[in-house]
Amino acid sequence: MGKGDKKTRRGKIVMGSYGKKRPKNGPKINVKKEKEGAS
C-alpha cells in the first residue's frame, strides 16, 4: 500500500490516474437557496 499501489488514492495521485477512489469531479454539494422576502 502506498505510492505504487494503483488501488489507493495516494497511488492514483502519483500515477496521475482517476477512478472510484479519486474522481475527477468532487462530491456535489446541494446548496439550498433562500426565498427572497420570506419573512
From TrEMBL:
The lineage of its organism: Bacteria, Pseudomonadati, Bacteroidota, Sphingobacteriia, Sphingobacteriales. Belongs to the bacterial ribosomal protein bTHX family. This is 30S ribosomal protein THX. The keyword Ligase does not apply. It comes from Sphingobacterium suaedae. Residues 1-39 are annotated as: Disordered. Residues 1-12 have a biased composition (Basic residues). Signal peptide: none annotated. Keywords: Ribonucleoprotein, Ribosomal protein. GO terms for cellular component: ribosome. Pfam families: Thx.
